Amino acid sequence: MGKLARLFIEMFKVALFVVGGGFAIIAVCDEVFSRKLRWTEEGELLDMLPLYQMMPGILAAHNAVYVGRKVAGPVGSLVALAGVALPSIIIFTAVSMGYDFIPLHNPWLESAFVGLRSALTGVIIAMLAKTWRKSVSGVRAYAVFVLAAIALATPGVPAVAVILAAVVCGVASGLAGAGARRAFQSSPLAALLFLQYGAVAFGGGYVLVPVYIQDFVGEGAKYLQIAPSEFANLMALTQMTPGPIGLNAATYFGYRLFGVMGGLVATACILLPGFVAMSLALASLERFRESAVLKGVMAWVRPVTAALMASAAVAFVGMSCYDVTDSPHVSWCTFGPFNVNAAAVALAAAAALAVGLRRLGVMSVIAACALAGLAFRV
User: Fold this and answer.
1) Are the beta carbons of 236 and 116 closer than 8 angstroms?
2) Among 102, 152, 247, 342, which is most buried by a count of CB atoms within 10 Å?
């Protein structure tokens, strides 16, 4: 079997069977390509994480570009990227087409989804805690975090604008140191929307959650106005299905906007900015790492990324630990002051501790919380 074919098959298999997002995919790839195929050094892909996080786009896609380029040059990058993206395209196109037929209002399934949403809340909080020291360090970083958090909490302020403002300030710092839904009636215009998402996704799919909420969730959203409970269920499905979270969600939203072709366009466009950025970066890796402009950008973008993750955590607390409908999610939910779901709070806290202390993997935590939801139901 040719090297390109083997590269595609191995990337496809990893993306097809690994659940839990980009970090999980990178960890498995590190084992497959170092121990099994000996195409990389052991730990090499995990060592590349800081570079992946500096680039806009999806972490698993950055990893595919790196491995593909090392194995077979620029063509290998494209082949590996196709391998890691194809399972998401296939599975989430099917999920999108059949979403209305999933019995989400079945009491047993609804109980499991409450557990899943609670787990996702805890996972995001744990990830924020893990990355806090690296993302928010120093007086300026704290100031940027607070300003970004205030901006994100202000109605009418686009999350994308907050990220772009940080990029502009970062470029300036580095140099100094050294529409409405109906307006989108064609795939080319939809492509611009998802290109924009791909260009501002520093740090992986979780940071896109506030952007997706602003653009697609609730009556005031510009493009879809889906219910908060549907979005929460969607995020749980992205965790329980193979592929990167940000990529799965893009496929779903693209499908909802323009059908199957919209899903394909959205998937391709959210990957394109990261592919271009990683390809350029890897062409001159050492010089890129020492770029004063890049260091300036990351000094401003990292605290904004932390603010976006905090905003996502707050959103998921609302979707999992509070009643987001006119009645409780399911019969076992117990609501106290301000309509708090005590069981969901307990599950979210347990999930955050388990992931933060590395007692369990993300997938194990999510499965355990789903089972706990069923147990509470009983």
Assistant:
1) yes
2) 247
> Which structural domain, as residue segments, surrounds residue 59?
3-377
Contact between 288 and 294 (Cβ < 8 Å): yes
pLDDT exceeds 70 at position 273: yes
Answer for the pair 239, 366: CB distance below 8 angstroms, yes or no: yes
DSSP 20: S
Give the distance from CA 143 to its chain's centroid: 25
User: Residue 278 is which amino acid?
Assistant: M
Half-sphere exposure in the Cβ direction for 137 (13 Å, CA): 9
d(CA 141, CA 164): 16
Are 130 and 349 in contact by the 8 Å Cβ rule? The answer is no
Indicate yes or no: pTM above 0.70.
Answer: no
| Domains in the chain, number | 1
Task: Give the tokens for residue 292.
Answer: 């004063």
Q: For residues 191 and 267, what is the distance between their CA atoms, to the nearest angstrom?
A: 9
**Tokens found for residue 274:** 């990261």
* Residue at token pair 């990220």: 163
Residues 6+ positions from 326 with CB-CB distance below 8 Å: none
- Other Cβ atoms within 10 Å of 367 Cβ, number: 18
Taking the CA atoms of residue 21, residue 257, residue 311 and residue 357 in that order, the dihedral angle to the nearest 10 degrees is -10
Residue 79 and residue 72 in contact, taking contact as beta carbons nearer than 8 Å: yes
